[in-house]
Amino acid sequence: MDQQDSCIVRLFSNYCALSEKDKELLFALEQSPTEVRAGETLWKECDRASEFCTIRRGWAYSYRNLGDGSRQILEIYLPGDIIGMREFAFSQRLSGVTMIDDGVICYFPHRRLLDIFRSSTTLTAVLFAIASRHQVLLTERLVNLARRSAYQRLAHFLYEMYERLGQTDSLSDGHFRLPLSQEQLGDALGLSSVHISRTFSTFREEGLVLRERHRICLVDPLKLAAVAEFDSRYLNDSLRPLFSDIEFKERGGEVNEVRTE
Amino acid sequence: MDQQDSCIVRLFSNYCALSEKDKELLFALEQSPTEVRAGETLWKECDRASEFCTIRRGWAYSYRNLGDGSRQILEIYLPGDIIGMREFAFSQRLSGVTMIDDGVICYFPHRRLLDIFRSSTTLTAVLFAIASRHQVLLTERLVNLARRSAYQRLAHFLYEMYERLGQTDSLSDGHFRLPLSQEQLGDALGLSSVHISRTFSTFREEGLVLRERHRICLVDPLKLAAVAEFDSRYLNDSLRPLFSDIEFKERGGEVNEVRTE
DNA sequence: CGCAGTATTGAAAAATATCAAGAGGGGTGG
DNA sequence: CCACCCCTCTTGATATTTTTCAATACTGCG
């Protein structure tokens, strides 16, 4: 495999221009690829946590099971994502992860992250940026779940997937594959599967979104984003913010701090 | 001010033993203290983001306003917390922050964090651990909002505050001050203030929680934790996990990696 | 004393869940 | 190729939870 094919190198490159050394460091995270099958569980809640992984191919989701038998799907992971960072400070898994599709994942130990902290300020900063972005995504989802109607929640979810997928693949019109059952969508959005079905029916009647098995068509993406009150800043405003500064300093430059007191 | 009084040094010490040099680095973040008044807004959504701050005294909360006039309170910050990390990768604020009490906060520029990355692997790892812990808190809150009844949500919130406060102060029995109106509680829990009131009434009838203005008394904390399905791992399992490893390596030791393939 | 923000309570309305029955679809074994 | 079955989805009826609206009480404060 060429470094150019590395999802993780591509992901990091979104944030910052990388040196060759940085690329090699990153590339090392994607050794020991493992084939996994759709439905396979990478780990369960309460398992010992001492590794992360990157997802090179396929989709996955993380979840938490609740006492009453229901569960919450926390995140949908796409190729290039790093999984398991949540538990960096923990000895146990706090959420399970299972594959949606067949795929390939690459495990690496927590310790490898420390190597990165030690050897590259740039990568460290990018990791921090990624973590910060994750947190923003999570926050946005929290607002979505806490404040919006079922109709808006589903609209928001669909539009978010559309945007995320559009960042790597170019989506012809508003079409994309969404390999999630209505029950899984319900688990992700805090709604019953029945209500998901009804909400899709409403979308169809209004001609806003069409769904056929696992294919979604956003007839009018902008209108969908509007009804969801989708704030696209939280997905798009995270590219190369203050990293020009890093690169500058790394090259030995001096930055005079202008602090407005 | 002595370093021992520094909230942030104390916070970081929870995760890892710190060298003197590390303490000085951290201590430097708490310069330029600013007095702020209850109700004062530190920043609004969409403001330019180029600083973090630590909160040395007082409480604060972050929030997002929504199109329909409602708002979501995202986090409650206590002394020692770092505020604004969410926007590390962003140029704009994605949430506002306002003070609950009078207090003292210390601003420092994003760039100061890069200095830390550059000069201390230990602090970098701790920062990462803190970010990871934040994310876990957020996740737990997300589950709470998405999956639980009003009754459970409020129970969970109260118990979480109880635990967090208990980590710095020792709370006599289940008593603590909670300087939030029922409207603010509603904003935090995705409920109407009316329903918060009703839920407190239920608690009172059951003799589970008493509330008088801004004072809360958890009559039976353990029972409260049980009804909330509170998972205390997510608050307590984050102290000194793999950092013995860091210290070891920092001292020049060699760690042989045992990777189970 | 009066006023503004905050809390309580009741009644009605809205949103969503639950239960139940049936429809469609795709895979598997006969 | 067909029959069957399991799983997912759809739709209707009903139940539950929570919101909204409105009226009234409470509290601290100028």
Describe this structure in words.
The structure is a homodimer of 261-residue chains. Chain A has helices at 7-13, 20-27, 110-119, 121-147, 150-168, 182-189, 193-206, 221-227, 233-236, 243-250; strands at residues 33-36, 41-43, 51-57, 60-65, 71-77, 82-83, 96-99, 103-109, 175-177, 209-212, 215-218. Chain A has 2 domains: 1-121, Jelly Rolls (Sandwich), CATH 2.60.120; 128-240, Arc Repressor Mutant, subunit A. The N and C termini of chain A lie far apart (51 Å). By secondary structure, the first copy, chain A, is an alpha+beta fold. In chain A, β4 (60-65) and β5 (71-77) form a beta hairpin. At the A-B interface, α3, α4 and α10 of A face α3, α4 and α10 of B. The first copy, chain A, binds a DNA duplex (30 and 30 nucleotides) through residues 149-150, 181-183, 191-198, 200-201, 213. Chains A, B: It holds the Pfam family HTH_Crp_2. Chains A, B: InterPro entries: cNMP-bd_dom, cNMP-bd_dom_sf, Env_Response_Regulators, HTH_CRP, RmlC-like_jellyroll, WH-like_DNA-bd_sf, WH_DNA-bd_sf. Chains A, B: Keywords: DNA-binding, Kinase, Transcription, Transcription regulation, Transferase. Chains A, B: One of its GO terms (molecular function) is kinase activity.
